[in-house]
Amino acid sequence: MSSRARDSPEVQFSKTLSFILRHGAVKEGIPMRSDGYVRVDDLLRHKKFSGKKLADLQAIVANNDKQRYLMTNEDGEWLIKANQGHSLKVEVELEQILDPSEIPIVVHGTYNRFWDLIEQEGLKKMGRNHIHFAVGRPGESGVISGMRTTSQILIYINVPLAMTDGIKFYRSPNNVILSDGINGVIPPKYFERVERK
């Protein structure tokens, strides 16, 4: 049985919303603005959201423990977007971090099966716009999102060294640290330490 088959309707709804807002809007024919917002009316007309209402979206936004979404009302029209995690080319609100002391802990979570390649080649954006990091371990104060709680390996980044070499770091509205590295890669030389959970 697939994980989707085991998921509750609410979890399936949230996964579909996350996919559409971060990866699938264009493919699904849902117009997306350059800043990542889509019209709620356009979403609710789509077959994947059949039977859903504005209140359902508002509940997901309000109750998402990772604060993954942002909703706003512009001139009487409701809009929604994902805060980060896009593979679609969008210009989401990101705050560039200029002082490494602002982010004393920057950690990427991954799995044992990926470690050999990461150890050799570094962290890569893969299909996304940025490499994602948390500001600590899942569950610690201020850590809302940035890695899966099931991560088996934690890679801590030497931010002062990376910034000295020109790597840029950004903060999303839900406190995820993002970087596009050097040509989409943060090489292993910037790994301060690696921990296995």
TrEMBL record:
Pfam (any one): PTS_2-RNA
Enzyme class, broadest EC rank: transferase
Gene3D superfamilies assigned to the protein according to its UniProt record, in alphabetical order: 3.20.170.30, RNA 2'-phosphotransferase, Tpt1/KptA family, N-terminal domain
GO molecular function: tRNA 2'-phosphotransferase activity
Enzyme Commission numbers on file: 2.7.1.160
Catalytic reactions on record: 2'-phospho-[ligated tRNA] + NAD(+) = mature tRNA + ADP-alpha-D-ribose 1'',2''-cyclic phosphate + nicotinamide
Any single biological process term in GO: tRNA splicing, via endonucleolytic cleavage and ligation
Keywords for the protein's UniProt record, in alphabetical order: NAD, Transferase
Family the UniProt entry places it in: Belongs to the KptA/TPT1 family.
Function: Catalyzes the last step of tRNA splicing, the transfer of the splice junction 2'-phosphate from ligated tRNA to NAD to produce ADP-ribose 1''-2'' cyclic phosphate.
Protein name, entry field: 2'-phosphotransferase
UniProt lineage: Eukaryota, Fungi, Fungi incertae sedis, Chytridiomycota, Chytridiomycota incertae sedis
